[in-house]
Structure formats: structure tokens, C-alpha cells
Amino acid sequence: MRLILLIAVFVGLGLGAPPVIDNYVVNGSDALTAEFPYMVSLRTRSGTHTCGATIISKRWLMTAAHCFTSRNPDDYTVQYGTNVISRDGDSVMKIRRIICHEGYDDNNQFIHDIALIELDHPLEFDAFVDAVQLPHPFAFTQGGVESQLVGWGLNATVGGVIQTHLQKVDLETMTDDECRKLHFDKIHTTNICAGAKGGGKGQCTGDSGGPLLVNGVQVGIVSWSVKPCTIAPYPGVFTEVSHYIDWILLNSDIVLKY
After folding, report:
1. Alpha-carbon distance values, 10 to 23, 88, 235 (Å)
2. What is the pLDDT of residues 141-189, one digit of tens each?
3. How far apart are CA 181 and CA 58, in angstroms?
4. Which residues on neighbouring strands pair with residue 211, listed in sequence order?
5. Are 248 and 117 in contact (CB under 8 A)?
6. CA-based nearest residue to 192, from 153, 232, 243, 155
7. What is the pTM for the complete model shown?
8. CB 204 within 8 A of CB 22
9. Positions marked active-site
10. CB-based contacts of 220: which residues, under 8 Å, 6+ apart?
11. Which of 67, 79, 210, 218 has its CA 20 to 30 A from that of 239?
């Protein structure tokens, strides 16, 4: 079903049939131990990695709404506190509740592609498990800013595999006008874009829901991208987190400390 949705986005841009849309880190490098203690693997009931997510409090995670083909919490688990994920790994927890943005629409270029996950019980924070820093409401991120993408996604569209070791890759943000022109005005004001000049680095299948970071602050959530993964000149498209701080606070019990 996800493949169909991703193809629909590409066709919606007026660019014809596949290449399709994916989400995995392409040309990244291994993350260091405890470098990203807020990274979480969202898994299917069978333990297969499907998306990234980030810890935003001891009880709440944040990810992309399109990661959920089912809204039944029993269909998913999360693995946390590790860079190396596996079907039978440790630190796996059940999910109590899934809250997708009420305005999310995959037929409208994945608008409002954000979701919250309430965990079955609170996490214990330490050097390996901690919350990501969120931006101030409606904080603006300029184009041309160094940023970082983190995830376990495919390392290539064709012949790529899900990474078991967490990957990171350096990118550069793009202005809204630049991104909108490249995507034929199919970008929402609640999106932020980032990529590498010349392509070749960025998100691919499996990175969905993971973070785009600027100086350690999560400014974006991996939403979609033109495929093949990291093809030039198209940057990755992210949900811009600063637009949703009020929504996050309304739908959870977290308290933000800046």
C-alpha cells in the first residue's frame, strides 16, 4: 500500500510513473554509541523495522502519520536505547496509543504528516535513552543551513537493504521557494526541505518518521521524496516540527523546557 501512495506522489508532481518514493539513509555513516539517544525503531508486530521515531518525553514518541497502515497499537512495537536494531533485540516496548494528525491527507502531498505514540509505560532516561530537543513554536529555519538526517532506512533504491546499524548523513536545508519550484508548487508551508547538492545523499525507504536535526534540534520529520532515492536535484521533504508544537502539547502531557 505504501508503494502505491509513494508512486501517487511522484505522478502528482507531473513527472510520470516511477521512479517511486522511498525513505532510507543513502551514503551515510555509522552513528556513534549514544550519539542519538532519542532515536527509536518503529516495528511491525513481527519485529520488522518500518519507520524511525524520536523520543520527546518519557512516555511519548513522535513520527510520521504515513508510517501507520493500521491505527491499532497492538500491530506495532518500538525498540529503543540502541544503535543496532534486530527482530529479537532487547529494549522493546509495546504501544498504548497512536495519535495521527486529524488533518493528515496522503492524497494532498502528505500534508500534516505527523503522529504521536504513547508508550505502554514510561522510559527510564540515561546516557542511551533521552528526549530530543524540539524547536520553539513557528521557529524559522533558513535555507543553506547544515543539518543532519538519522535513520535505519535503505541505503539505495535499487538493491538497497535496511541498515541494522543507525546511520547519519550531513545535508543542507533549502529555502521554501527553491523547494517549491523543484516540486512544481506541491510543497506545503508546513514542510521543510533538505538534501545534498548534486544528490547522492539523503533519505530512502525506512527513514520515514525519523528526524532532520539542526544543531541537535529536531526541525523536521522525514515525510517523502522523489525517487530513485537522493536523485538530483530533488531534496527530501520533511514535516516542519515548529508548526506543530501547539498540536503536540494539546495531544500529549509533555512539558517543553527550552
Report:
1. 14, 35, 13
2. 999 999 999 999 988 767 778 889 999 999 999 999 999 999 988 899 9
3. 40
4. 221
5. no
6. 243
7. 0.89
8. yes
9. 66, 113, 208
10. 147, 192, 194, 211, 212, 238, 239, 240, 241
11. 79
